[in-house]
Amino acid sequence: MSPHSNDRPVTPLRRRMLEDMAVRGLREATQRDYIRFVQTFAAFLGRSPETATADDLRRFQVHQAQTGVQPPTINCSVSALRFLFTVTLDRPDLSRRLVLARYPRKLPEVLSVEEVGRLLQAAPGAKYRAALGTAYGAGLRVSEVATLKIDNIDSTRMLIRIEEGKGRKDRNAMLSPQLLELLRLWWKEGRQRGVMLPHGWLFPGRSRLQPVSTRRLNRAVHEAAEAAGITRRVSPHTLRHSFAPHLLEQNVDIRVIQVLLGHSKLDTTALYAKVATRTIRAVTSPIEQLKILMENENARE
């Protein structure tokens, strides 16, 4: 759906903002979100955001906090309004008045290698076993899995080509022999069923011309987790979250993992070191050195 789609007439301000976002290459989903947040702000004001003052922005953010709007939503609205005031309205002085909400960063939920194996085994069919295996085996986001094409799989160089991932960045992901085997099993079945088109989607949806939806991949994970007896909350992103700590536990350099995940900042990847349980258990605490010193002292006495 285009961000222009709306029953109401497009105001000059909205049209200008849409043009500004399109020029800067913002995704349609981002454009829709930005427009929605600006509409929420306009509804709060009861007039056009063009007439907003610094006090209006302060009142709006106080209103969000008092009505229980969650920090991630507040921060998304800040991004939208900063774009509006900095780019479209050329009023950076107002943009600087917007405050990001701070909140504790939770550790990602991670499955054990054994749990991942059970989940993939319980996946509803070869297609979803291959799709979920790709999320885990290559550390891909669910949107990246859904939009893979057959030609993105390079079995000669053992790479998966990710086109326009997060931030519209291309990158190469790893293709392991075991994952390649899962993909080949699905490819053979898909060809037999007539759902795989030459140079088409690797995981087609109900129509061969459309990719599988991320919502359907989420449902497949939930079904597999329930069948595998995994009671924790699991999503396709849980498989991506599990990819990084499992590599860390194999002593893979964290900067390599950063590249594989497509993270722009090492800090984001470093978070996984906190959930790499085998790595944590393998570290020798300094108190062990203290114990050795104390034993040597006692022996000399």
From TrEMBL:
Q: Which UniProt keywords apply?
A: DNA integration, DNA recombination, DNA-binding
* Keyword DNA-binding applies: yes
Look up and give the organism this protein is from: Fulvimarina uroteuthidis
Q: Pfam families annotated for this entry?
A: Phage_int_SAM_4 (PF13495), Phage_integrase (PF00589)
- Family of this protein: Belongs to the 'phage' integrase family.
* Annotated ranges, domain Core-binding (CB): 8-89
Kindly provide the name given to this protein in its UniProt entry: Tyrosine-type recombinase/integrase
Stored Gene3D superfamilies = 1.10.150.130, Intergrase catalytic core
Q: Which domain of life is it from?
A: Bacteria
DNA-binding: is it a keyword of this entry?
yes
Q: Which residues form the Tyr recombinase domain?
A: 106-285
Q: Which residues form a coiled coil?
A: none
